[in-house]
């Protein structure tokens, strides 16, 4: 049975990726597209300047874009994906949940609120239990689930594998992030050609807080955040897609490269349509993963790790994920699949 | 009085930058250019494929390139600059020193040898005292001084300032390095367009060892290496010039952002022609320094620092230097100036 | 029935693309891989530094690379694809043809020889008749077919459509070519980042001669070259794949934009596995085709045209094709399919 | 005696280049900076996001930005430079001229109006005579002079040299234009990394009309446009600065490469501070000029030509100029110098 879904903020960079993910999806059927008032009433083809490097799906192209308003979305839509700007999402998402919609959102608002599940299905699917908490506390009929920021999601699966096996104490991460992470117009060409920018507003804080919530324990009532120290340094570089990260993970126990590689490779995936068979791919070649060569593995949903080395206090390694697929649209779709699997739809 | 100088390995990327630095130099006069046998006997114009973005100096263009052999270099040349490939340098540099030449070398061979001074004049000019040790031990008439690797030189001045003021305990550094650091043909376009490579062979080790030697104490006989832990993670990105680095510097004493900024700004420069008036420029803007905007400050000889933040154990900051000027050719020229100043010529 | 095929020069950039095309092919089965002596005896995985952005096919990875010598290729191989350097191809390709092999070659040698068919199957499949001529003249048992240069192949299908409909008199073309056209190491990053190079050795001549042969008439004995004037100006730009070309096509008859678009859209394709259903896609949007967005249409085998305008003497338009697929490996595979279809295997 | 000057639209990309040009100018002194209402009342340092790769001049940084209104500009300002958006310029520039100001404008409005001089001082300084015509016709006290579009200005000096010597009949030009030509935010990074865009709105028309006006004859009353056919095809590529153009120039007389090179080299410059000693530099190397290597020659005010070849009907060649210096800010400053020289201030 197919679930009818809607996309809030359908014309942006992540919105386009959402449509690319949902259009061929076995369980989801696109039934509503919303955008800001400049696009309302237009066909999606007119409203969106389509820039994904596969053609715009023909049936989606002819859909009419509606306003981002619960009254404009058909009642038989069961699941909403949100890629609204966070300032918009903060105001509008609760209106939809109050109206009874179940929503998987990529927007950054509410991610660290106590009663909002922030989930990567392979890592902390049980945090979905917070939906009961949020319904109790907020009187919501619907449900709201968030996926983390694209830079956070890249490192958390390997950190979760290492934490489980060896105990994390201290994490430092330096990122080399692709321009698509800032949206279509976020980084101008004059800013980034032959250049790098050692600052992405708010990003370091997101990595430091979201990762500790994701790696935390849900005790049935609340999430006890992981108490590892996490410090991030974020950089924008001239790549289109794929965030590469250098991580130092200090561990409670001593660990060898081989033990780490094994823990990473054997970290379990989850049986959902968009989740890869093997979640974490470990490269032996010291110069991998690389954004252009490795971002598309497992249809952009894989996490790649390489360059594992022992340090004084633990390990250092590099990790990579496709920031607009695994780090945004695909992450939301995967959370939607989890909501379906767990009976929330 | 002008010193007649020669450049060994004059046709490569660093060799061209050396010529660009030396040609207008107040104290140095180009008197010999050497290269491999393919170039011998040709005019420099023919032998070098000039790619620096200022024109080839006309008088240099007409000089004849000779073999990299002490017999081919005129006797009245007093100072040699070497940008030979390290495998060549290892064999050939000693021949020149034995023949009595004084050499400032950018090549990586011998850098961590006990009796070879590895110097950044503003940081550890006193290590030049090792020349007496090397003459004693090796029976050399000449002298050999090395400058560090381009990625090392970018972070060592700020680390020296912080070590002096607050005591360094642990350093982790992640680099975003320009393609020119690999030489003209070192990185192909297909490797790096829309990409980053999280590995530069041997580079992490160089940063970890050279920095500890540079920050060490010379006691008149040998250098006691600094005992801070240093761990590096090196990346190549699609920038032409300018290495950007994210540094975590754990310190023995607590330190505020303001104290750190002051220690960096007030770290003394040295009175040599190529040294900037202020060695370390500290940016207030969180998104600076950036390679394209800041690599040319102080004619490419400045060190730029920004993004200073307090952490649990000390500080994190970003630093930047022009890798083929401050990090290579200019570093060698500056060491040449120090040799002249200190009476070794 | 599957045809067993071999790839000569299998480790290079085009060789890798050939393997990517042939591995899933319905009619072809990889049975031999050759390379230069440095690779002989190694597994393909070891010999090739695989850089295509899909994984190396596992069964191919374990094949052993042999020397480029007819004695080293198994006798039951029926078809060879050659992506040898042209200087090597000139010496070695005839040895294979003399030994009875049928070869589809991407190498530039022999392309304008009178008895060598230079074919784009959708445009001039009948030129394959030259095989009889070459067998008569050279006493060959096998057969040799060439595909044109990647920059030529991009413009010839639209020129053929316009020539047939309106008669070409004069062609001027300016190219914006991707770095992959020069092979993996052909363009260094220092040459091309923030730059363009208005010269590609020999390329203009190839475009001017090959296009006139391709557009010529085969009368059963020889090809009468098309007598349109063709002048080319070739540039390298910082794109990875996809050659974009600005064309002025002066025509004998007056032609409107609509008539031109119709002639292009209706130009027939051919019924071979690698040929697209519609050969030439015509964009209405004035800013298309673009290399990154449009190079992969029809699995990289389509020709895209846009920006059609009327001029004083005919038309101007832009065209685009994927240079290492439609312009090299895919072009060779398509010629192989034509050889199979036409009974030469 | 120093002329006090103002810059209209001082915060944009061209405005910043104007300030970089004017600040060290021997004859001009910055006395007024205007911008849109968002910047009014702020210091220039605050109002402009300075992105030129030399530091912001300290004295300029502290100037207060005023509204783009004749009442806000001090009366003792004698010359205005305008880099307003053309839609703004169309409304506002006449207000300043009516108020008596003399203006050198880079904005595209009015460029092809009959009574507005469009000048490149080395090419058609005599067109300044149109100022009398415009004063008569419009009742203006001040004067308005325009410089051409950046892509036009690159090719017109070589075309003027060839027209004078051999007679131009037909010109076709294909451009490879840098992103800075579209202003700081004009081209996003996602649009242009690993890509090229074969369309720049209105640009082809500008090249076709402006060039014919520039190459026309001023008879004392009006400019008789040159009657050569000019057709342009414009492309944006991932370069920061420097427009490269492939030109076919058909000529009335036969011409050899040597004759063409001589006519280009000997085309006279003009004796103004910003004009280079030699206007057109002719490269012998077939792969020059290149944007990154050659855009800064003669402080960015030179025109570089290379790749000259004979064709059936004349010549083909490549040309290059720095688009925001020679093609915009420097062009305006040079026109300002001409106005001063000719006594209009």
UniProtKB/TrEMBL annotation, chains A, B, C, D:
The keyword Cell inner membrane does not apply. The keyword Oxidoreductase applies. It comes from Halorientalis persicus. Belongs to the aspartate-semialdehyde dehydrogenase family. Keywords: NADP, Oxidoreductase. PANTHER family: ASPARTATE-SEMIALDEHYDE DEHYDROGENASE. This is Aspartate semialdehyde dehydrogenase. One of its GO terms (biological process) is threonine biosynthetic process. The active site is at residues 150, 243. Residues 4-131 form the Semialdehyde dehydrogenase NAD-binding domain. The lineage of its organism: Archaea, Methanobacteriati, Methanobacteriota, Stenosarchaea group, Halobacteria. One of its GO terms (molecular function) is NAD binding.
């Amino acid at each position: 049975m197919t679930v009818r879904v809607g996309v809030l903020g359908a014309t942006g960079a992540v919105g386009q990726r959402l449509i690319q993910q949902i259009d061929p999806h076995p369980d989801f059927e696109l039934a509503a597209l919303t955008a800001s008032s400049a696009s309302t009433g237009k066909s999606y083809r007119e409203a969106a300047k389509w820039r994904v490097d596969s053609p715009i799906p023909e049936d989606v192209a002819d859909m009419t874009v509606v306003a981002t308003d619960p009254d404009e979305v058909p009642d038989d839509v069961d699941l909403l994906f949100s890629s609204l700007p966070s300032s918009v999402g903060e105001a509008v998402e609760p209106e939809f949940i109050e109206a009874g919609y179940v929503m998987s959102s990529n927007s950054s608002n509410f991610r660290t609120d106590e009663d909002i599940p922030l989930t990567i299905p392979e890592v902390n699917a049980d945090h979905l239990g917070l939906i009961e908490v949020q319904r109790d506390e907020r009187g919501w009929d619907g449900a709201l689930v968030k996926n983390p920021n694209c830079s956070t999601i890249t490192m958390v699966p390997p950190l979760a594998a290492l934490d489980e096996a060896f105990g994390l104490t201290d994490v430092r991460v330096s990122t080399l992030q692709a321009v698509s992470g800032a949206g279509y117009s976020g980084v101008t060409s004059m800013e980034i050609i032959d250049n790098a920018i050692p600052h992405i507003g708010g990003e370091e804080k997101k990595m430091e807080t979201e990762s500790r919530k994701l790696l935390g324990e849900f005790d049935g009532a609340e999430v006890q955040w992981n108490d590892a120290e996490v410090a991030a340094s974020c950089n924008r570089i001239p790549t289109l897609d794929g965030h590469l990260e250098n991580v130092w993970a200090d561990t409670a126990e001593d660990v060898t490269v081989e033990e780490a590689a094994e823990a990473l490779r054997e970290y379990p995936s989850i049986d959902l349509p968009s989740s890869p068979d093997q979640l974490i791919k470990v490269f032996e070649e010291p110069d991998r993963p690389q954004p252009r060569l490795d971002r598309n593995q497992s249809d952009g949903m894989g996490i790649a790790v390489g360059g594992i080395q022992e340090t004084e206090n633990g390990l250092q390694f590099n990790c990579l994920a496709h920031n607009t697929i695994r780090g945004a649209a695909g992450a939301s779709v995967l959370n939607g699949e989890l909501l379906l699997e767990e009976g929330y739809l």
